[in-house]
Write a sequence for this structure.
DNA sequence: GAGCCGTGGTC
DNA sequence: TGACCAAGGCT
């Protein structure tokens, strides 16, 4: 007697197993999911995808992988070139951190992306989520992977709540409890939960009619109650330092060489705020000052 | 741990 | 139209 015959009936109503099968038919064809993409390609994609939509990442990821297919290749590139190649993905500090990570990979890991979560988390710009995503999707390890999609799916499916609670340490255990025991299926499960959150169990208007695990969903069984917690407020953007920094960087990205301070004046009318933001860009290493008091992307 | 760090699309 | 949202990380 092998155990297979006893596992099969359970799989029909085991949400973890159902999601793996659903993913096989519903998954998007994204370039970083294709066969042959190595852990480096996965790492680059995960950093680019931090807070940035898939559609904007796709073309940039293709360019980066064509130009810098290894950590060593990226480690040799100047910050200025990377900031320009980052384009309008946003949060350009990620480009600098990815370069720092590449340098660390060359210096500490022989130029390869390590498989263990602890070593990955030690890399600049790699936190709890990204480290597990790379270990799981890049190295095939059955790690629990928790992002905002997964927290939302678990909140509804398991806890019967409309919205994801703030990240907490128990999230990893919640997801691990849903995962199939077979390691290969556990790996696909990790990406399947994220895909469900991205395509079906979305934040604003969930498509419950298309959900493969709707019959097991605690939120649906509870009648889809509205969110009860305090309304989380979204960050402003217009008029903030983030917008001003973006404007300043825009000027420097477009310029051929160093630009005088007077050229940066046109980026934002408020001199005090403009100066503060330029200083913060210098501190962050996104801008450098030349000897003749002009400014440029760091060489 | 709350606030900061870009950008653009959607409803 | 403006709030909301998008595969987080860092301080």
């Amino acid at each position: 007697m092998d155990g297979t015959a006893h596992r099969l009936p359970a799989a029909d109503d085991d949400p973890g197993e159902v999601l793996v099968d659903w993913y096989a038919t519903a998954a998007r064809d994204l370039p970083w999911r294709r066969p042959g993409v190595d852990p480096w390609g996965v790492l680059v994609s995960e950093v680019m995808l931090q807070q940035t939509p898939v559609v904007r990442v796709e073309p940039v990821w293709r360019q980066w992988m064509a130009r810098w297919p290894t950590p060593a290749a990226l480690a040799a590139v100047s910050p200025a070139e990377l900031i320009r190649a980052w384009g309008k993905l946003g949060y350009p500090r990620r480009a600098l951190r990815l370069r720092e990570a590449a340098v660390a990979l060359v210096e500490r890991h022989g130029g390869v992306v390590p498989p263990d979560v602890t070593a990955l988390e030690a890399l600049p710009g790699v936190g709890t989520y990204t480290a597990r995503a790379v270990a799981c999707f890049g190295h095939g390890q059955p790690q629990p992977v928790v992002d905002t999609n997964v927290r939302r799916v678990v909140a509804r499916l398991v806890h019967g709540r409309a919205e994801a609670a703030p990240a907490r340490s128990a999230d990893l255990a919640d997801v691990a409890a849903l995962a199939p025991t077979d390691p290969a299926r556990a790996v696909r499960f990790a990406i399947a939960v994220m895909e469900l959150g991205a395509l079906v169990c979305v934040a604003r208007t969930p498509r419950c009619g298309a959900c493969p695990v709707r019959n097991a969903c605690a939120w649906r069984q509870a009648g889809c109650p509205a969110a009860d917690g305090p309304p989380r407020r979204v960050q402003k953007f217009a008029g903030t330092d983030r917008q001003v920094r973006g404007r300043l960087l825009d000027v420097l990205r477009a310029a051929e060489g160093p630009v005088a301070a007077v050229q940066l004046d046109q980026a934002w009318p408020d001199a005090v705020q403009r100066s503060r933001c330029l200083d913060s860009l210098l501190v962050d290493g996104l801008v450098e000052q030349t000897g003749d008091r002009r400014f440029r992307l760091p060489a």
